[in-house]
Amino acid sequence: MADGFLEKHHEEYEARKEAWLRKKKHLPKINKKLERPVDEAL
């Protein structure tokens, strides 16, 4: 019983992971560049 339970949950996990990775690849990349404040003391 435990083997079937674990296999089923592992297959569901792999399916969710694959769908997440597919969705992640299609999203546009957001390049966040941090702008440092100009230090007037220097």
Polypeptide structure, described:
The protein has one helix at residues 2-26. The longest helix is centred in the middle third of the chain and has 25 residues, at 2-26. The model has no long low-confidence stretch (mean pLDDT 81). The chain starts with a helix and ends in a 16-residue tail after the last helix. It is mainly alpha-helical and 42 residues long. It has 1 helix and no strands.
Which terms would index this structure?
42 residues, mainly alpha, Dehydrogenase
Chart the SSEs and their pairings.
Layout: H1 2-26
Give the distance, in angstroms, between the N- and C-terminal Cα atoms.
Answer: 70 Å
Specify the number of helices: 1
How do the helices and strands follow one another from N- to C-terminus? H
Strand content: under 5%
**What's the mean pLDDT score?**
81
Q: What's the β-strand tally?
A: 0
Low-confidence stretches: none
What is the C-alpha radius of gyration, as a whole number of Å?
22 Å
Judged by helices, strands and strand pairing, the structural class is mainly alpha
The helical percent reads: 55-70%
Shape: elongated
Main sheet? none
